[in-house]
């Protein structure tokens, strides 16, 4: 894997250290997450974040373990870091960090206090909501180490205040149980019990959300580090509280072995590929021992079928996890209703609200069978896939239906945003894209051809599918090219002066990246043209991906920042999306264009934001600062896929 480490100039500078985040997933939907400098900058940061009934309904438990070292001289040095609502940062333990490393995906810190060097390692037990934090004396000593446990128990999307109920902490052997939900265990536990008021999260302030919360100082652990190699360790776990996990050092060793095995299984060709293979593993979860699923992004997303299916090839087929992928495709097929795939259960209910998620599912199944030769799965899912086509031809929810006049797929209903550009502001879609979106129809054509191939592999007649495919391809080639030199983004869209369903229609020629799928998919309707791709790249390509709208558009928003309304308003109006590098690179390769230099910026990004991973989004204007989730499934998956494809 690539070498990710930072010395004192990064670790000791709060701006640099706090803007680089690490993630350690537990494999069931929870995680530990924080920053290089140890400062919690998000409400989502914590050492034990516990998965709930759905992947997005997580609870924050153990927030931090603040180290304090008592030296032989009697001096006490605090190594933690907190920012307070007053603006004060205290303590400032990051100033004593001499090194941070990400080793086999696990974070490691080293503090130097004169001749004394103390190391911290952190890991989660794979398949269980359990974290281990190991402190080791590297040099100097003897010293006494105290670890102050700051706790809460709340929804990961909110805060908890001192004016509410006091957390219930029950003393048990070697530690305590907090709120009956999770257990802490370590040496020399001494209960405390007081509120730390006004802990500030600077990233939440930047996002226009409430940035402050109160934490409960539950108590502290204490141990002696007499000679180099001595350790003081703490474990915290949820779920089966009476079932003790292995020792902390064992948990670290187990997690390290597993991560190395993930990389070995992926058969990575170079360090970047190995890093992406391990990054991909973070998104593949098995919640509560149930079927395999995919977390769309950390720290706030749960499972979204569109993201899952776009990510499918990169997460599963490129990492040699086809058996898990097969299980996932079967479980998602069971959610089909009226020809549509369930989109997300993050809200606690199943929703059917995308036009493209189902079409990406057709693509994922086709790619699975093509890459693995698993025709048994193709045969098994074929009846369900046929219902998708039948429902789209007959018409299904939200006006999704094939236009019999041209064989293209139309969509749209009042108040809906059904494509991947689905942001809303105060409930109103920003980019409804009502009509016939370009990528939706590229996916429809691709899906028809993929299903026709699966039908023929099953020894059945696919003539009607090929007929529909031919009609749609002919219409696509006739209608989507625009006088501007690129493709229309939406055909038959309601004219701006008319409401949905009004008399006037127009073809939207805004320069957006959606058209890339018309050239990139396996059964793409168009052969790519180098001149057209260069026009697209001139307006949209950045070091971290493609803008969602060209800068010369009146609606362009160059900075993805501000409160929720401002951020959602700019989400698809110029914001850069790294996942779009996948279709861009595919289209360029089909056109015989060189893409050797395309990955330089995004590979450097692996050490700049979410360490070892790829962010959800970035600003449309230079320097293209990363935004959104620091760890995003389709960003990682598409980069992994197209890099592998070119090797």
UniProtKB/TrEMBL annotation:
Q: Name one GO biological process term.
A: glycogen catabolic process
Q: Which GO terms describe its molecular function?
A: 4-alpha-glucanotransferase activity; amylo-alpha-1,6-glucosidase activity
Looking at the record, the residues that make up the Glycogen debranching enzyme bacterial and archaeal type N-terminal domain are 20-227
UniProt-listed SUPFAM superfamilies: Six-hairpin glycosidases (SSF48208)
Q: In its UniProt entry, what is this protein called?
A: Amylo-alpha-1,6-glucosidase
Per the record, the domain of life is: Bacteria
Q: Which Pfam families match?
A: GDE_C, GDE_N
List the source organism: Micromonospora orduensis
Residues annotated as domain Glycogen debranching enzyme C-terminal: 279-641
């Amino acid at each position: 894997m690539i070498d990710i480490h930072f010395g004192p100039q990064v670790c000791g500078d709060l701006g640099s250290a706090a803007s680089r985040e690490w993630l350690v997933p537990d494999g069931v939907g929870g995680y530990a997450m924080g920053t290089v400098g140890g400062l919690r900058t998000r409400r989502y940061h914590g050492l034990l974040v516990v998965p709930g009934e759905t992947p997005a309904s997580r609870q924050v438990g153990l927030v931090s373990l603040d180290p304090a070292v008592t030296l032989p001289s009697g001096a006490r040095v605090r190594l933690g870091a907190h920012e307070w609502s007053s603006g004060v940062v205290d303590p400032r333990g990051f100033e004593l960090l001499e090194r941070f490393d990400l080793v086999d995906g696990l974070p490691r810190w080293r503090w130097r206090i004169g001749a004394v060097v103390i190391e911290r390692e952190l890991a989660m037990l794979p398949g269980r909501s359990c974290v281990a934090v190991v402190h080791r004396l590297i040099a100097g000593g003897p010293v006494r180490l105290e670890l102050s446990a700051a706790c809460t128990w709340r929804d990961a999307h909110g805060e908890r205040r001192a004016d509410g109920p006091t957390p219930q902490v029950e003393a048990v052997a070697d530690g305590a149980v907090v709120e009956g939900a999770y257990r802490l265990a370590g040496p020399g536990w001494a209960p405390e019990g007081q509120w730390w008021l006004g802990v500030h999260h600077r990233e939440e302030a930047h996002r226009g959300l409430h940035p402050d919360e109160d934490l409960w100082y539950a108590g502290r652990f204490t141990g002696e580090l007499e000679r180099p190699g001595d350790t003081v360790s703490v474990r915290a776990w949820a779920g089966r509280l009476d079932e003790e996990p292995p020792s902390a050092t064992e948990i670290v060793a187990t997690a390290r072995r597993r991560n190395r095995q993930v990389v070995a299984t992926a058969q990575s060709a170079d360090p970047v590929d190995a890093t992406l293979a391990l990054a991909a593993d973070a998104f593949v979860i098995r919640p509560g021992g149930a079927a395999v699923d995919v977390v769309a992004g950390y720290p706030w997303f749960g499972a979204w079928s569109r993201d899952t299916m776009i990510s499918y090839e990169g997460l599963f087929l490129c990492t040699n996890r086809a058996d898990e992928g097969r299980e996932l495709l079967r479980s998602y097929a069971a959610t089909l209703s009226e020809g549509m795939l369930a989109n997300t259960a993050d809200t606690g209910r199943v929703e059917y609200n995308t036009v493209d998620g189902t079409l990406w599912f057709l693509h994922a199944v086709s790619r699975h069978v093509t890459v693995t030769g698993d025709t048994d799965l193709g045969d098994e899912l074929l009846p369900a896939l046929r219902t998708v086509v039948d429902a789209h031809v007959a018409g299904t929810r939200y006006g999704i239906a094939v236009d019999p006049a041209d064989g293209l797929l139309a969509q749209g209903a009042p108040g809906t945003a059904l494509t991947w550009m689905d942001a809303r502001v105060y409930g109103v879609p920003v980019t409804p894209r009502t009509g016939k979106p370009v990528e939706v129809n590229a996916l429809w054509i691709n899906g028809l051809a993929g299903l026709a191939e699966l039908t023929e592999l099953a020894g059945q007649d696919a003539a009607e599918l090929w007929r529909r495919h031919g009609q749609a391809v002919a219409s696509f080639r006739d209608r989507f090219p625009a006088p501007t030199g690129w493709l229309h983004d939406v055909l038959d869209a309601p004219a701006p002066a008319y409401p949905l369903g009004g008399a006037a229609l127009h073809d939207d020629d805004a320069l957006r990246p959606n058209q890339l799928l018309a050239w990139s998919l396996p059964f793409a309707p168009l052969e790519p043209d180098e001149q057209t791709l260069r026009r697209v790249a001139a307006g949209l390509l950045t070091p971290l991906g493609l803008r969602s709208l060209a800068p010369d558009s009146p609606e362009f928003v160059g900075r993805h920042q501000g409160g929720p309304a401002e951020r959602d308003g700019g989400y698809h109006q110029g914001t850069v999306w790294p996942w779009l590098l996948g279709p861009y690179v595919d289209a360029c390769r089909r056109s015989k264009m060189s893409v050797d230099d395309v990955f330089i910026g995004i590979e450097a990004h692996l050490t700049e934001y979410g360490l070892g991973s790829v962010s959800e989004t970035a600003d449309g204007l230079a320097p293209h600062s990363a935004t959104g989730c620091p760890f995003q499934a389709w960003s990682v998956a598409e980069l992994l896929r197209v890099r592998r494809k070119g090797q």
